[in-house]
Design a protein that fits this description.
The complex is a heterotrimer. Chain B contains eleven helices and 18 strands. Chain B is of the alpha/beta class. In chain B, the strands form three sheets. In chain B, strands 1, 2, 8, 9, 10, 11, 17 and 18 form an eight-stranded mixed sheet that branches. Chain B has an eight-stranded mixed sheet with strand order 5-6-4-13-14-15-12-16. In chain B, strands 3-7 form a two-stranded antiparallel ribbon. The chains are: A mainly beta, B alpha/beta, C alpha+beta. The interface between B and C is large, with 120 and 114 residues.
């Protein structure tokens, strides 16, 4: 069971969280004219890297905040977690 | 090639089993092939076999980064079925069931195809109705399906919990009598042996590091055993698809996730059928060895680790006991994990790509094992003819643009929710 | 019967407490502190079971978790457990056990015929035969094989036992209480660390229990006792015996199973049988020790062939002799301890040592005790079927290829030692690579990946002095890092006899013309020839070897067999062992009870049950409940002999005619608050929300980004910046997460907060032509006229002093109101409604009547919004704004979604107006077409229209828009039904929607 540092609540076990997928998926702006290609990429295409992955988690049984986690998809090592408005390089 | 039979077994036994030939050779790669299949799992091996058998293309190499049969074909719960609602799936998998029925004889390798029947339990009238929709669709597609009431389920699987002390009582179930199991390793080995005998080079411990592409056309691959030229290349790498796609600068509607399974210690026969729980995500059958083979949910976050965590299995086994109370006293013996190429609508992709001569076979989610023969059969056709077969026409990459999605579960793009 | 193999006065068992037990129906005695194995051996019972494939007789091989043979069916307190290891099962009064995998008895087992056919049953034989005729595999061969396989039998009764879970955090978890475990736990605890020390066995001390070493000025065993009692007294230390740490998972989460009651005749009240511990440890000291590995020789599976260390343990811990004429066969010094122990107890063993001229302190001691030691000697084969009677022994050449003249030697047991294999399972599970240590011919842990340290013999250190030194230091260093304390304790002096080098020898060659089976995996009957065959056939990867031969796949998971298998593969393949590699170590280290993994979430508690505040009223009024997710909702209220159909028909008719009340508490409710709430709703829903006045409700549909309908419901503007959203029961949790995602991740600039209020409100839907009269009566001060409270209006009022929210919304299509009060007042509200409604012939109605009402109105619900349909399909395209953007809008213009013949919801009526159409039927043009018969759509919901008094269904039909008036067939082959139907509008009742506005 992963041990995840919620930026708001601190270290908590994974069963308090829900996963939210690739954090690098950017929704096109509202009312923006986007091509089919860009829209479909947003809806369906995922990099799914082996190694470092920046992803969203939701502290669903806690503060209910969404936040970012940088994790290795092979070892599950978590390098850092950050609030949504912070960048993870 | 030596023929396997009870007679050859006796003959060889009397000679101390010294004369058995290798099941497949261990060749060094040639410099060029007509077709290279990447991935020595079930689908890759089957593709190589059907290329040779159905399309007479034998100048084929199959490259595998590790040992053949070590991916998901060697780490699944061995369930065979074609109990799908959507036509694209139903007809495709039913062709697969046809291939399963004759596979042992076709491959001269006992893959232990065992049509013990698969039962999906229903725990409400609403679920019975949803299963009716699926079962009726199957029947109208010519696939066997039977709707069972509570009493009929009880007769077939008396070990289920029919007491009052259940959270979700059993209302009935949908059964596909021809569904069942097969011996997973044997499938990989049987395909490998026959493909090898027809001239396919099975090259193990050969990891792909890149592709040679010129003018939008595939020219060959780069591997840990050197560069190999090829006119056509087929990708059959399941959970590793996104990694190879990255080498090709492709992004796919796929995420890689971990699915765990486990077996109990072997016990005397207690369960004949394959049974799935309807009020959660749990499935169970008993192997010929006597082990209860159990699987369920994904670990729930992108993962390339072939290892998982206990809470997921705890959850799976909780549903297991809810269904089969007798599991409580058994012991969990072995657990393992496989990495799944989860597609965004839950259905596979078998298609050409924008690169000429490069073909894609992926997106099997956690249902790839049963597809092994028909995936290989249709993929071989797609590669050999450079066009999709009608059976895999729906499994196109373009469906994610056109909206012709094949979503059996109606869960959409959150692949980690099962 | 006397315990003729029990020594007087030796061992740790409690001689004052005699315990009776039964094995295969026969009564025996043992002592408190025995295992079933030690008690059976004490009674001279060596035949306990049969092997998996050849049904060869099997006895005891080890004395603990590594045991491959002694698997029994256990009976305890009226229950039975399959596949218990006799070497681990502690004896209790009244224990009963039976042999497994034999019929009719362990002594005479029909299955043993396989042993005589064994040349026809090599590894993987089943892949080569049983293929003809085609159907015979499933019909004939497989059932036969299945019957022969398996060990014990599962209990068919529900498990009465209770299993519990515990979550724990600690600074240091120590797995094993041998010298390294005690030393590291002790030094860390003394330095202030919070320590958990786990020992699998009932007794602490590990190898110290049976060693002759001294620590400080006392024996190893005494030292262990002293340390343990000190640890047990320390408040920062938890010491657990009978506790196996079986899994090392991510982020230093380890899982341990504690066997609390397995050693007792019955589980005490308020005590679980087992407890599963999830332990999050800052650091882990893996001190799991090592397991002796066998040397492979002919018939090495014969009962009476045991590990030398096990023989010593039976002697020193249990005072039991595995034999009275022992032959000891070794390639190293440790077996001499066993030999000396026998000798001290008056039994003279013969020692065969494969080494030509070893020299060490312990060998000198054995020589001085007149023990018969033969160097360069090996056991070629054990003789005897159900028990060792003799051994064929001989001299072996220096290169281990040539055997000398074979002689027979009488013996009744062969104690074998092929040196030690570190138990690296936990270390490997943590993610560490392993490395092969040439010095000990075994794998040891490589670089540490998580926060763990492997100590002592688990790390390949077999010398007590080094073990104590590194373990004391590790405990100190680890604790210092965590506690920042600096209390270092001195390391005690230790003394043990120096050992000479072991012989790199693990398999005795076969003499010419002999075909003895030499087993590697004892439980699965994998022999040397099986491995040879696998390699000959090209199954060369170690994983292929394992899978083809089943090596290491038995319930002992290859603890004594895997390394010898690797040695064999490496010698045949001419590779070094590390390049052969090994199979992956996965949890669990040892099989774990599934009941313990699951804990308390069984039976009714396997999932939570949610009930509305009015639940007990429903119960008292004969409600029949239905599961709606985890909620229980009244499906109908049974009167007399009514069935579902009659009751729901009555209830629905009453709504259409008079007034009904339905508990709608389960609907999801979300408060949406903030200055940007309207803008947010406008983005979430497909229709326009910016101009909704205060005190008005609106129906809305929300999509996923892929254009599929996610949920629907009404949302009401309570005040300027406050909206009350409702969701379906099923999607409540998902919708909240969805809203939070968009607010926090996508549009963080919107000033809106959302919170679930589902639990805070109890809801009652009051529907029917007389509902206004009832409302007027309930809310005397309120004007509920159509003018003051029109359709989709909202007011706040009070119900006899209880604050209430009143929404004029309708799902039934009738004039209807929904009243919400705070949950605590739910029952009060309900009773008031029922009381006041009496004069209007009010009846409660359940979900079934609710379905009927919505279906004949053509309102879509879960069976249409099935995660595959877009607004158009549900006839909701009118609610899709063309002007503004919203979640999922961009997906709606895709080719498949805009196809001319796109599916759409329609009504379906059987031509005979009598035959109900089963839900899940499909609509086809030609009922007799050949298969596959093209399907045009499916029946999503069916009801008996109370308005028209005939069956009516909804369907999602291809080109539904243009199909009205067409005649098709509804087919349900599952129910053998083909029903001619007509396609009609989905709005079967009040198509203009006048009633809701009346």
């Amino acid at each position: 069971m992963l041990y995840i540092k919620c930026p708001y609540c601190g270290m908590r076990s994974q069963n308090e969280f829900a996963y939210g997928g690739d954090a690098n998926v950017k929704r096109p702006e509202l009312n923006e004219e986007v091509s089919d290609k860009i829209w479909d990429e947003f809806v369906y295409l995922r990099k799914s890297p082996r190694g470092k992955h920046i992803e969203l988690w939701h502290h669903i049984s806690g503060c209910r905040q969404w936040f970012k986690v940088q994790r290795d998809t092979t070892t599950h090592e978590i390098f850092r977690t950050a609030a949504i408005n912070e960048d993870i390089k | 090639m030596q023929k396997y039979s009870v007679f050859s077994l006796i003959k060889n036994a009397l000679k101390g089993h010294k004369d058995w030939e290798v099941a497949w050779k261990d060749p060094a790669p040639k410099s060029e092939y007509d077709v290279i299949i990447i991935g020595g799992g079930g689908h890759g091996l089957a593709t190589a076999y059907y290329l040779a058998k159905e399309h007479n293309i034998t100048n084929v190499a199959l490259v595998e980064k590790s040992w053949i049969g070590g991916g998901n074909v060697g780490r699944n719960t061995t369930i065979l079925r074609s109990n799908y609602m959507h036509d694209e799936n139903g007809l495709f998998y039913e062709k697969g069931m046809d291939l399963w029925r004759s596979m042992s004889q076709d491959l001269n390798f006992n893959v232990m195809y065992s049509p013990r029947g698969i039962i999906n339990l229903a725990h409400s009238d609403a679920q019975m109705n949803a299963y009716s929709r699926r079962g009726n669709s199957m029947r109208l597609n010519g696939i066997d399906a039977v709707l069972l009431g509570r009493e009929e389920v009880k007769k077939l699987v008396p070990m289920l919990d029919f007491s009052d002390n259940v959270r979700f009582p059993i209302f009935g179930g949908l059964m596909q009598p021809s569904g069942g199991t097969a011996r997973h390793d044997a499938v990989a080995w049987g395909y490998a042996r026959q493909a090898d005998s027809m001239g396919v080079d099975i090259i193990q411990h050969c990891e792909v590091s890149g592709f040679d592409i010129a003018n939008g056309k595939i020219k060959g691959i780069r591997t840990s055993k050197g560069n190999i030229k090829a006119k056509k290349v087929g990708l059959c790498v399941a959970g590793s698809t996104s990694v190879l796609a990255e080498m090709l600068n492709m992004t796919l509607p796929i995420e890689t996730h971990l699915l765990q399974a486990c077996v109990s210690e072997p016990i005397k026969p207690i369960l004949d059928h394959v049974v799935t729980f309807g009020a959660g995500h749990f499935y169970c059958s008993q192997s010929d060895k006597g082990e209860m083979v159990m699987g369920g949910d994904l670990d729930g976050y992108n993962s390339y680790a072939q290892r998982g965590n206990l809470p997921t299995l705890q959850h799976v086994l909780t549903e297991g006991i809810a269904m089969f109370p007798f599991l409580s006293k058994l012991k969990m013996l072995r657990t393992w994990g496989g990495i799944m190429d989860m597609s965004m609508d839950g259905s596979p992709i078998i298609d050409k790509t924008h690169i000429d001569g490069l073909y894609l076979n992926c997106g099997w989610c956690y249902g790839g094992f049963k597809a092994t023969p028909v995936s290989g059969w249709t993929f071989a056709h797609t590669i050999a003819q450079d066009r999709v077969h009608e059976l895999n026409a729906g499994f196109s990459l373009s469906r994610f643009n056109t909206g012709h999605l094949i979503d059996e579960k109606g869960l959409g793009t959150k692949t980690w929710i099962s | 019967m006397s315990q003729e193999y029990r020594l007087d006065k030796v061992g740790l068992v409690n001689r004052d407490k005699k315990i009776s037990f039964k094995f295969n129906g026969k009564k025996y005695f043992g002592y408190e502190g025995d295992t079933l194995a030690s008690a059976l051996i004490a009674n001279g019972v060596h035949l306990v079971g049969r092997s998996f494939k050849y049904h060869r007789p099997r006895g005891f091989f080890g004395a603990g978790v590594d045991e491959p043979y002694a698997i029994v069916q256990l009976y305890r307190n009226g229950e039975t457990d399959p596949n218990c290891r006799a070497t681990e099962q502690e004896l209790f009064e009244g224990l009963e056990a039976k042999s497994v995998n034999c019929w009719p008895s362990v002594n005479f087992d029909i299955g043993a015929i396989n042993n005589f056919l064994n040349i026809f049953l090599p590894a993987g034989f089943y892949y080569k035969t049983f293929m003809w005729p085609r159907s015979f595999w499933y019909r004939i061969y497989e059932p036969f094989i299945r019957k022969a396989a398996g060990f014990g039998s599962a209990s068919k009764k529900h498990d009465k036992e209770r299993y519990e879970h515990k979550y724990e955090y600690c600074d240091l978890l120590v797995t094993g209480s041998g010298p390294s475990g005690l030393a590291s736990a002790y030094s860390a605890a003394k330095n202030g660390a919070k320590v958990i020390l786990a020992e699998d066995k009932p007794r602490f001390g590990g190898s110290l229990l049976t060693s002759e070493a001294n620590i400080g000025n006392q024996s190893g065993k005494e030292w262990a006792e002293k340390i343990i009692s000190e640890l047990q007294e320390m408040p920062n230390v938890t010491v657990k015996n009978r506790s196996q740490v079986f899994g090392y998972y991510d982020h230093n989460m380890l899982v341990m199973s504690e066997r609390i009651s397995d050693h007792l005749p019955e589980t005490k009240k308020f005590t679980p049988k087992q407890r599963l511990w999830y332990i999050r440890a800052k650091e882990v000291a893996i001190s799991s020790g090592s397991i002796e590995r066998p040397i492979v020789f002919g018939n090495n599976d014969t009962p009476g062939v045991v590990l030398s260390s096990a023989a010593k343990e039976y002697l020193k811990v249990y005072g039991v002799l595995v034999g009275k004429k022992p032959l000891i066969f070794t390639n190293n010094d440790s077996a001499y301890e066993t030999a000396i122990e026998f000798k001290k107890n008056g039994i003279t063993p013969v020692v065969l040592d494969s080494r030509s001229n070893p020299d060490s302190e312990i060998i000198s001691e054995a020589v001085s005790m007149d023990i018969d030691i033969r160097f360069s000697h090996v056991v070629v084969a054990a003789k005897g079927y159900k028990k060792v009677k003799k051994a064929e022994i001989t001299k072996i050449s220096e290169d281990k290829n040539e055997l000398g003249k074979i002689e027979n030697i009488n013996c009744d047991c062969i104690c074998v030692s092929g040196f030690w294999t570190p138990t690296i399972h936990l270390s490997s599970q943590s993610g560490n690579k392993t490395k092969f240590d040439e010095k000990i011919d075994a794998f040891i842990p490589g670089k540490s990946k998580q926060n763990e340290t492997t100590l002592g013999s688990a790390n390949g250190v077999f010398n007590l002095e080094d073990t104590l030194k590194t373990s004391f230091e590790a405990g100190y260093e680890i604790s210092k890092k965590i506690t920042k304390n600096d209390n270092k304790i001195s390391i005690p002096q230790s003394y043990e006899k120096k050992q000479s080098k072991h012989d790199k020898f693990w398999c005795v060659p076969l003499p010419k013309n002999k075909k003895y089976k030499r087993f590697l995996d004892f439980q699965n009957d994998v022999s040397v020839t099986d491995i040879e065959l696998a390699l000959r056939e090209g199954y060369r990867s170690i994983e292929h070897v394992k899978r083809y031969t089943t090596l290491g796949m038995a319930t002992d998971q290859g603890k004594t067999s895997n390394l010898n298998g690797l040695q064999l593969v490496s010698s045949i393949e001419n590779k070094v062992v590390p390049s052969v590699g090994h199979t992956t170590f996965r949890p669990p280290y040892t099989p774990v009870c599934i009941g313990a993994i699951v804990g308390r979430e069984i039976g009714k508690h396997s999932k939570p049950t949610r009930k509305s505040p009015m639940h007990s009223w429903h119960e008292k009024n004969n409600a029949v409940f239905v599961d709606a997710g985890v909620w229980l909702r009244p499906r109908y209220y049974k009167r007399g002999n009514e069935n579902l159909f009659l009751a729901s028909k009555r209830e629905a008719e009453n709504v259409r005619k008079n007034v009904g009340v339905c508990d709608v508490t389960t609907l999801g409710k979300i408060d949406v608050k903030g200055p940007d709430a309207a803008e947010f709703l406008n983005r979430v829903y497909t229709n326009a929300w910016l101009k909704l006045p205060i005190g008005k409700a609106r129906y809305g549909v929300m999509l996923r980004e892929d254009g599929i309908v996610m949920d629907d419901g009404t949302t009401t503007r309570i005040s300027e910046n406050h909206y009350h959203m409702t969701t379906t029961t099923a999607q409540a949790a998902n919708v909240l997460s969805h809203l939070e995602y968009y607010l926090q991740v996508v549009w963080p600039k919107l000033n809106v907060n959302v919170v679930s209020t589902t639990e805070q409100w109890a809801g009652a839907a009051i529907a029917g032509p007389k509902s206004r009269l009832l409302m007027q009566k309930l809310f005397k001060d309120l004007d509920v006229s159509n003018e003051s409270l029109p359709f989709m209006g909202y007011v706040e009022s009070n119900l006899s002093g209880v604050p209430a929210r009143i929404f004029r919304i309708s799902f039934s299509g009738e004039l209807a109101y929904e009243v919400n009060v705070e949950s605590d007042n739910g029952n009060f509200m309900w009773e008031k409604i029922m009381e006041a409604g009496q004069e209007f012939q009010i009846q409660p109605y359940g979900t079934e009547a609710l379905s009927t009402l919505r279906i004949e109105m053509g309102h879509v619900a879960g069976s249409e919004l099935d995660g595959r349909t877009i607004p158009y399909d549900n006839g909701l395209d009118g609610l899709v704004s063309k002007k503004k953007d919203f979640i999922g809008k961009r997906s709606l213009i895709r080719k498949a979604f805009t196809a001319k013949d796109r599916q759409r919801v329609v009504g379906v009526v059987p031509l005979d107006k009598k035959t109900s159409i089963p839900e899940g039927s499909h609509l086809v043009k030609d009922a007799k077409a050949k298969l596959p018969n093209p399907k045009l759509g499916h029946i999503s919901a069916s009801c008996w229209s109370v308005e028209h008094n005939n069956p009516f269904s909804l369907a999602i039909l291809k080109d539904g828009k243009n199909m009205i008036g067409q005649k098709l067939f509804a087919m349900s082959p599952l129910k053998n039904k083909t029903i001619p139907v007509e396609i009609v509008s989905s709005h079967y009742v009040d198509p203009k929607g006048e009633r809701v506005r009346s």
